[in-house]
Structure of Cytochrome P450 1A1-like protein 1:
Amino acid sequence: MVLPAIRIGFMESPAHKLGPGLAILLVCLVCLFLCIQAFFHFGPCRPLPGIPRNKLSWMGFKGDIIEVFKAGNTMDWLLEQSRKHGPICQLFLRPLKQPFVLISDYTVAQAIMLKRKEWDRSDYSIELLSGQAPMHHINLKTGPEWRAHRKLIQDLMGQSFLNNVAAPNIYSSTLNLVELWTMKERTANGHAFSATDDVIHSTLDAAWAFTFGDAFPVKAIHQGTISCAPVTFTEHKVTFGSPSQLPAVEATLGASDIVGELAASPCPTTSWYIMRATSKRVKRHLAIRREYVQEQIMAAVERLHVTDPVLAEGKVKFTSATDFVVRRVKDCAESAGEVPDYLSETVFGLIIGGHDTTSTTKSWGLKHLADNQIVQDRLRASLRASFSLATQERRMPTVQEITGTCIPYLDAVLEEILRLACSLAILDRQATCDTEVLGHHIPKGTIVMMLNRGPSFTEPAFDEALAGGLSVAGTGSSWVVHTLHHFMPERWLETNDQGRSFFNPKAGPTLPFGSGPRSCYGRKLGYLDLRIVFVLLVWRFKLHKCAPELSTYDAVETLTYKPERCYVNLESIKE
């Protein structure tokens, strides 16, 4: 009785009624489905055993990508995943590729970055940045070629360059910003105005100046345009008209915008090739940047043959970062008047590296100081006391005074700005061999993303139970965990045996420049820039708190994690 029942059931099935052709098609579709499932189970996008993940995210072509798009803000979504899954989880953010591993703990992140042999620059970061500068050292894996390219800029973090070239140029560009804001403050008459573009342009001018010298002909800030710019007043703010950008300014700022567009794509390399082949804007920007960078390099080559009579016989005076770099590769630059690509990319990298993250950090710093009046007042009082001669003479501190005076509270304020700004909110590394993180096996080639905010940074760390008994909160910090999201520079200050306050840069968890051999090479330059800018701005202006709708901490994501709004309500301080 069983066999006829099976036979009748088969004879009456839909596949039989559809005919042999459609039946074969149905069988093929089933086989294809099984092959796809086998691919996801055993292919490159299979989940890593034991590491928490979103349910079923690995089984589709789009993985977690749709959820990221729905969230709108990648950083906020990543933070939500860390709170949901714990100190380690895996995310499928690229079609048909290995998952990323997300780490949400300071101690683990620091350990990964300090391990020289097990971890290296990630392929994903290289995909994002290498399109515009493939031979820059940041886009090379650690090895002889990377060391050779990085050696080109080894002089730029020495005291000779920082004190004699970078600092004066940053100081001069900041004075231009002070002059511009003094004019705007008079016109604003107690209203707030957007500081975003002014901060970006001032920082770009500084980067151009210390990269090429103060004779570089292009300036992003033009004080003269404020007098004829249209002005619109509303209840809480005033809007100044924006003068048209010079081609070099637009092309340089466009480099960061391109990286932001690529970061929003699940396939950055493909997107870059399409963009470069089809976008007139991208082609124009690349041509403009290449032209002015090569012109400045050749000018630096010519300067190598000019000795300064003030210096000792045969000595050349270096007035820019390009002078220092070209000195090391002058033979290559002089050959047939042709500039090697890697030299142009090294020089252009100084501009982007010295501009984008720094301007973003300044914008966050202005917001924090305006919203924390007690901190701002204490900082100003500390500056007045430390620069007593400038106070007596009713003038601004000189660049030598700013760079040569130890002010612990200023250092603490800058460190706290960097901690909460999170201009680079995500750090990443790629495993060069099979390794282990928080007790989980990490195969070779896996990319690990490490958050620079959230748990153990700006929120309490996960307890040991979530890490399988492993210690994940051992930062050695005595900070009160429920205040981690507050702006409190005092957390970086300690008292010595003589009762004097001193700045301790290792007082707590922060990684604004990364760590280890692939950390940000321009750390000293970044601190110097922030130091000069905030001394001059806080000395010259009272930063009043803006209206609530202008003081939000919402962010937008490009190359960096920028504030969506950065407004200032200024009051000039009479000397």
